[in-house]
Amino acid sequence: MGRFLILVVALFVLIWLLRGALSGRKRGRPESPEARSELVQCAHCGVHLPRMEARSAGGRHFCSEEHRRLGARED
Ligand SMILES: [Zn+2]
Question: Which of 1, 14, 32, 43 is most buried by its number of CB atoms within 10 A?
Answer without folding.
Answer: 43
